[in-house]
Design goal:
The protein has about 280 residues and is an alpha/beta fold. It contains 10 helices and 9 strands. The protein binds pantoate.
Length: about 280
């Protein structure tokens, strides 16, 4: 049975004992409702560490007032079974009091300027401040040597890279590939909100990103690529927040320049908001 720890003194004692034995600690922060994408992050962390800690904490401060915090799927028994098979050594399940001992109103907040305000940040005000704050707290609790995050949350990964670099956290960041269903839909805990009809439309998000990549590689102007993507998604039934192409650092890409690019989209099907991205290279 996988070890589950819910109190900070026990967590600290366990991590200290591992470190005394010279073991490298890997970490995968999650909000639970784990699927194959999370399990692949456990394997990734394991490839660079001797012990792997997974945290499960549904973090209230990264949800907006009209978002799905209350109904975010919580599946503790299935999560434990999956983590056991995935090779996790320790499950860290802090309480809200451990994460926010002074209460949310009085909690220290972290903010990465600039990149937190565009795309996801523009549509989910304060989201990345909540993410940074909780991830910094988790890093300080777990003290990992390496930490794995999924590329599906591309912007989150960039924000966390910025935070780790600026605050000099001695942590190596690993980026896990996005895992997809057979029809291309990126795995996500939120997919289960989709009705049968919405689920059949959802893979159009990834197909649109592939079209965006192909159109960029073929030399089409960026604004045409983006507006065609929006129209395509709307025709399929999505309400589109954004469908854009950016540099790998999420800056607006200059036309006709080479280098790594990422197509990113966020769109709603009914009440469910999906995000996805596709990285590619614009060669000579
Ligand atoms: O990606 C997530 O599941 C969350 O944003 C994270 C990193 C666990 C912080 O709550």
């Amino acid at each position: 049975m996988i070890d589950t720890i819910t109190g900070l003194p026990d967590l600290r004692a366990r991590i200290a004992a591992w470190k005394r034995d010279g073991l490298r600690v890997g970490f995968v922060p999650t909000m639970g409702n784990l699927h194959a994408g999370h399990h692949s992050l456990v394997s990734l962390a394991r490839s660079r560490a001797d012990r792997v800690v997974v945290s499960i904490f549904v973090n209230p401060t990264q949800f907006g007032p009209s978002e799905d915090y209350a109904r975010y799927p919580r599946t503790p028994e299935a999560d434990v079974r999956g983590l056991q098979e995935a090779g996790c050594d320790l499950l860290w399940q802090p309480t809200a009091d451990t994460m926010y001992p002074l209460g949310i109103e009085r909690a220290v907040q972290l903010r990465v300027p600039g990149i937190s305000d565009v795309l996801e940040g523009a549509h989910r005000r304060g989201h990345f401040d909540g993410v940074c704050t909780v991830v910094a707290k988790l890093f300080s609790q777990v003290q990992p040597d390496v930490a794995a995050f999924g590329r599906k949350d591309y912007q989150q990964l960039e924000v966390i890279r910025h935070m780790v670099s600026d605050l000099s956290f001695p942590i190596e960041l690993l980026a896990g590939q996005t895992l997809r269903e057979d029809d291309g839909l990126a795995m996500s805990s939120r997919n289960q909100y989709l009705s049968t009809d919405e689920r059949s439309v959802a893979p159009e998000l990834y197909r649109t990103l592939q079209r965006m990549r192909d159109a960029c590689v073929a030399g089409n102007a960026m604004h045409e690529v983006e507006s065609a993507a929006r129209s395509r998604l709307e025709a399929a039934g999505f309400v589109v927040d954004y469908a854009v192409v950016r540099t790998s650092g999420l800056e607006v890409a200059e036309p006709a320049t080479e280098g790594p690019r990422v197509a990113l989209a966020a769109a709603r099907l009914g009440p469910t908001r999906l995000i996805d991205n596709l990285e590619f290279d614009l060669g000579a």
